[in-house]
Amino acid sequence: MATAIASSSSDSTNSTTGSAVLKQRLSVFIDPSRILIRPIDLVAYASDASFYRLIPKAVVLSKTVAEIQKLFQFSHEQRIPLTFRAGGTSLSGQTISDGILVDVGRYWRDVRVEGSGKLIRLQPGVIGAHANAVLMKHAAKIGPDPASINTCRIGGILSNNSSGMCCGVVQNAYHTLESLTFILPSGTRIYTADADADEQFRAKEPELARGLLEMKGRIESDPGMAGRIRSKYRMKNTTGYSLNAFLDFHRPVEIFRNLLVGAEGTLAFIAEAVLRTVPDLQVKYTGLLLFPGLHAAADAIVPLREAGAAALEIMDRAALRSVEDQPGVPASLKRLSEDAAGLLVEFQVADEHDRPNLEARSLDAVANLTLTEPPVFTHDPAEQAQLWKIRAGMFPSVGAVRKSGTTVIIEDVAFPVERLADAAIDLTRLFKKHGYDNAIIFGHAKDGNLHFVITQGFNEQKLVDQYAQFIDDVVALVVKKYDGALKAEHGTGRNMAPFVETEWGPEAYEIMQRLKQLADPENLLNPGVIINPDHNAHLSDLKRMPVVESEVDKCIECGYCEPKCPSRELTLTPRQRIVVRREIVRLEASGSNPELRAALEADFPYMALDTCAVDGLCATTCPVSIDTGNLTKLFRQIRHSESAHRRAVRLARNFALLERCVRLGLTLGHLFASIFGASALPALTRRLREVLKRPIPMWGNDMPKPRKGVLPVTSGSGAAAVYFPTCISRVFGSLPGEPEDVTVMGALLNVAQRAGMTLYIPKDVVGTCCGVPFSSKGYNRAHVEAVNTAIEHFWEWSQHGSIPVVLDTSPCSYGLLTSRPYLKPENQAKYDRLRILDSIEFVNDTLLPRLSSNRKVHSVALHPVCSVIKMSLTAKLVNVARFCSDVVTVPAAAGCCGFAGDRGFLFPELTESATLHEAAEVAQGNYDGYYSSSRTCEIGMTRATGKIYRSFIYLVDHSTRP
Fold this sequence. Notes:
Elements: H1 16-26, E1 35-36, H2 39-44, E2 58-61, H3 65-78, E3 82-85, E4 100-103, E5 111-114, E6 119-122, H4 128-135, E7 140-141, H5 154-159, H6 173-176, E8 177-183, E9 189-191, H7 197-204, H8 206-220, H9 223-232, H10 245-248, H11 252-259, E10 269-276, E11 278-279, E12 283-291, H12 294-299, H13 301-306, E13 311-316, H14 317-321, E14 341-349, H15 355-366, E15 376-378, H16 381-392, H17 394-401, E16 407-414, H18 420-434, E17 440-444, E18 449-456, H19 461-481, H20 493-496, H21 500-504, H22 506-519, H23 574-590, H24 594-610, H25 617-621, H26 628-639, H27 642-653, H28 655-676, H29 680-692, E19 721-724, H30 727-731, H31 744-754, E20 759-760, H32 772-777, H33 780-797, E21 805-807, H34 810-817, H35 825-833, E22 836-838, H36 839-847, E23 857-862, H37 866-870, H38 874-884, E24 885-889, H39 903-906, H40 908-914, H41 916-923, E25 929-932, H42 935-945, E26 949-951, H43 952-960
Parallel strand pairs: 2-4, 3-4, 19-20, 19-21, 21-22, 23-24, 23-25, 25-26
Antiparallel strand pairs: 1-2, 5-6, 6-10, 7-11, 8-9, 8-10, 12-14, 12-15, 13-14, 13-17, 16-18, 17-18
């Protein structure tokens, strides 16, 4: 069997000269800064969420329609394929290319609500969840609801005709499409809402327009084909092109408009879309139903669907078993028989007054079902979230236990609902036949859509053969036995392109081929996707997954992490860091292409390590909870010499001296600036960086002043809590232009006093560090030293855990709350008896109930730092702010500021890039105050916005003054 595994051999990459020439030619009409040709950039974009891999010749970050038109022209002149990519979350290999890859995710982000929320106008780079956030105030949302909606973008949602758990076949992109602006490979631009759009289309593209009408006539004159098309689109189906457009519409421009939905970027570029919105039903009633077998679960689908169930998620026994040990999962799952199955059911309505009817309707629907135990439904949002967490946890549960060197493959197929149980059982038999012991099945039962998850390696030919034989059997099962759909909602892609004709038959496939030839005569637009004459195309360009570091071996390169990454528009994302790291390991193992390996290793330190904020937000959206910052810390640790590690340990043991040095440095810096001018020291530090060729802290005019005076004197007698002012609060004072009337320590003591509580600041607090600065820099031994010392001090200060310890800087709180694995056994025992609280939690839970808000401000903007998000304290921060102000805004674009302790001083470009969108959003408002909970992050946001960010404690202090 002929197969091809993607490699890094010299014939799969561009020479430096060839890349330079290509960039020079593209630079005639594209800003050179938006043309990426370095090997590290090309490798970073070589993967999407699929198990395929192609290294592009260049990556272009496009901005305008004019650029797209010129790129099409360039593609034709140079005979170089063109592929558009928005989010790169495609599971079937639609967004990779060995030609020019055009990224439309960075700049194509305009969004506008129209018609009082009935319509929404979107560019292809808008993330699906962001569209819904904009629509929230209109009680509306977009119809498609894919599981990847927090990451995937409108371009992909349209091009794959994505659906999801609730939208079915009625509210998908195809059926909610109002209009499009598209650009054909010829350069023709059409806005389909124009009154004369069809006339324009016929005049500019006469052959295509005639061909569409001819194909429409051919389908309508063949009752068998027309009937088959209508039948296949009553269930989910994204195999091949959307042939239903020929039956649903009459004018060529309308037919082509809807053919582009699900065309996977192979016919034209979608520059803008207008979608009709659907109601966002907030009243929900959710339950997990457990059945003795798949047939019983399948028998329940029709009555539950007829009763109005919005979501029906089926789970086989293997899927339920994969999550039965997770926290919050009902204990009854472990008692289920080997044949058992489950349905996660949700009913939804818009009006709270309809809740009793919703409850009655759902209970009536389950009354006659064959269940293993009585049904339990809930109205409680937290309990509902836990039930959905069970369903969401099935995919990562498989990913988390797979062998290193393998990837997770999710396929989706569709069957007639009445035969769903039989089909699922047949699939499990195929798993056993081909050795996929960890495979599970779940899916959108309401629509006959099943997802199956397997783990697969491609590092050896026998593994490729295993997959090939399995897919052949899957195709035969789905198409020949059940007349189902090989792709229900993930798009055809490279893995099912060889089987489109098998599913649709030669006549329908011929129409698809004709469509592609008319729209893209040169076959240069995303070739090989959907229409591919190579019967083994699904076995070519397979992605090998070498074993790398354990921190990231679980990564499936899905890209869910990318919207959270502060360096995503500067250097690399977490996914790309891992992709590049894997490429380096491939090259090391094979000994091939030493030039490429050298280029990657030369750029890796800055691109992957220096500009990683190690903020950990990537783990919050990763399906398998990978914190790529841990990989960065590991490499930073390796990069340090033994003597550097010893010096770091000495610093940890003599931290008080370091504090004094930093305060002295700040004093001298501000003195220097007052004598020689504000621009002198920034210029001097820049020059030193150039001379020394190493990053040293950059002095900026926003550098804080040193804290003035001695620490407040407090008594431990009768104290309600120990107050541990972090080193940041002990060292940093006010920012330039910030009031100096009170320190953050004084503000928290004031607030506690007004609440009738006493806080105790230990006299020996100076020199105690949470260890976070050492951990983030990769000084693991110094981190262990510091955090053990801190816990020992906390133990003594808190009278052996009898009162809580409160911290005023959220990253330090998080660092200590997650420090247990780094503690000595005796300190772990102490830690387990300590109660460590971030100031947000302490103020919200303990102080606010005892306080009155006497001086409310009108509006405030908040910046929840990364650790606040990871500690799930954002809601409490907002609640505290609402106590003190009338209007509280957390920008939709709020995320990691990239300051990361010292990154903002060493690599200020990271903070500038990370805060760009949040700062732009803040600039649109006019607020009375700007607040956060980390001084360094406050510096970063002040630098980005020109507005002074302060600790939220100052807001509470102001509001509660008599």
